[in-house]
Specification:
Layout lengths: L1 H7 L3 H19 L5 E5 L1 H5 L8 E9 H4 L6 H12 L6 E3 L5 E6 L2 E10 L13 H11 L4 H13 L14 H11 L2 H8 L6 E3 L10 H4 L8 E3 L15 H17 L12 H10 L3 E8 L5 H18 L5 E7 L6 E7 L7 E8 L3 H10 L3 E4 L2 E7 L5 H9 L2 H4 L4 E6 L1
Parallel strand pairs: 2-5, 6-7
Antiparallel strand pairs: 1-2, 3-4, 4-5, 8-10, 8-14, 9-10, 11-13, 12-13
Helix pairs in contact: 7-8, 8-9, 9-11
Length: about 425
């Protein structure tokens, strides 16, 4: 594993630069805040970040006694301080259970979340108030496991399993840290997936008697696999995990354990020539769309791209879809693709109406359509297709308000 760690572990120079920039960032913002302090959170605070990771999580912790009565104002108070600290930098306010802020400082992307500085879980007035405690728990248990966590993060990232956002439906960094602590190493985690069953519960701190977790947890927090948050027993840390990603985890783990193929740690980029060759093998037309996503929370932006993909799936059925998919990473352009059997449909469509026994419905159908006939006990009509050619059909869909509201820009790359 040394060769993989050599590639994914930050070098001393990178760590020094990271510390220098984050220290300066925290100093600037803390100088403008009252009754609060901003601290490093996430993988930066735990020392479990992958090389070239430019996303830094921070928490603005507001004094509990002073600010607990104005919890809904914390975002506004933080916004004033951030704008004073960084007057020339673009600051994005992102909607959340409490709004938080994104900005780029010296080529690092910072996310600052307002929270109350709590002493116990019971004091939390918002789910985000608990988040700073995660780093404390992880650091307490991972002194000798940092490399194992890095291996897990890189592997899951390469296999498109990393990320708890709804458009990914996988594992957050925190859940991987918990799993490595529980199983003891990256390889033991992969071995354990062989025994994972649907509705299984992993309870690291033994918050619940055996098999009782699902009874105590709210049904809305159930998922294909339950991981009881060691800090907050009411929370399923794997609530976002989809059945698709659960099954994929087991599949890629099995593959790795069989071959120990180190290429599985390498993320395969979206490769247009490979997609084109696959379409040729399938003797399909390749419809490839280039997407310029909206700005905002990655979770929401990603879901909007998926909704555009799903909308196209529904509308392109007559052309015969053999395969479809989408690709998007935060900070990059997105792609939506379809492999399609037909590039043109008959210019006349046979539209099936109601059964002939429904006389009123039949009359209404006949009023709407000029040419009608009876086939298989239904009234049918010949209707001229507005867009029988695939390229024209897609161009028309891309002009719809539904699509335009969900992306900044979308264009046909090839068809």
């Amino acid at each position: 594993m040394k060769d993989i760690l050599e590639k994914i572990k930050p070098k001393k120079e990178e760590i020094a630069e990271f510390q220098k920039i984050t220290t300066e960032f925290l100093k600037k913002i803390n100088g403008k805040l009252k009754n609060a302090d901003v601290i490093l959170g996430g993988s930066g605070a735990k020392g479990t970040w992958l090389t070239k990771n430019h996303d830094i999580d921070c928490f603005a912790r507001f004094d509990y006694d002073t600010c607990c009565h104005k919890t809904m104002e914390l975002s506004d108070l933080l916004e004033v301080a951030i704008k004073k600290a960084f007057p020339k930098i673009k600051i994005i306010r992102v909607h959340g259970s409490r709004d938080y802020f994104q900005l780029t400082f010296q080529n690092l992307d910072f996310e600052v979340v307002p929270v109350l500085k709590i002493r116990t879980i019971k004091e939390a007035l918002n789910i985000t108030d608990i988040s700073p405690l995660h780093a404390d728990w992880v650091n307490k248990h991972t002194k000798k496991l940092k490399d194992e966590i890095l291996l897990a993060k890189q592997f899951f990232k390469a296999q498109k399993l990393y990320g708890a956002e709804s458009h990914i439906g996988g594992y957050s960094g925190y859940t991987l840290e918990i799993l490595i602590i529980y199983y003891g190493s990256f390889e033991k985690l992969l071995e354990a997936t062989e025994k994972w069953k649907e509705k299984m519960v992993i309870d690291v701190e033994n918050h619940y008697p055996k098999k009782d977790a699902l009874f105590h947890l709210n049904k809305s927090k159930h998922s294909v696999l339950t991981l009881v948050d060691p800090i907050d027993k009411s929370r399923n840390a794997l609530a976002a995990l989809t059945k698709e990603k659960f099954n994929l985890t087991k599949k890629v783990a099995r593959h790795y354990l069989k071959n120990h193929d180190h290429s599985l740690f390498e993320k395969k980029p979206f490769d247009i020539p490979i997609i084109q060759k696959e379409a040729q093998r399938k003797k399909s037309n390749l419809l490839l769309l280039n997407v310029d996503p909206l700005e905002g929370k990655a979770d929401i932006v990603g879901m909007k791209i998926i909704k555009v993909h799903d909308h196209l799936v529904r509308n392109l059925q007559d052309f015969g879809i053999t395969k479809s998919g989408w690709e998007w990473d935060k900070g990059e352009q997105g792609w939506i693709y379809f492999m399609i059997e037909k590039d043109e449909l008959p210019h006349i469509e046979l539209r099936v109406g109601p059964p002939i026994g429904l006389k009123e419905a039949v009359q209404a159908f006949k009023k709407k359509h000029r040419k009608t006939s009876i086939q298989k006990m239904h009234v049918v009509a010949e209707v001229k297709r507005k867009f029988p050619v695939l390229s024209d059909f897609v161009k028309n869909i891309l002009q719809e308000k539904y699509v335009k509201d969900k992306v900044k820009k979308i264009k046909i790359y090839s068809v």
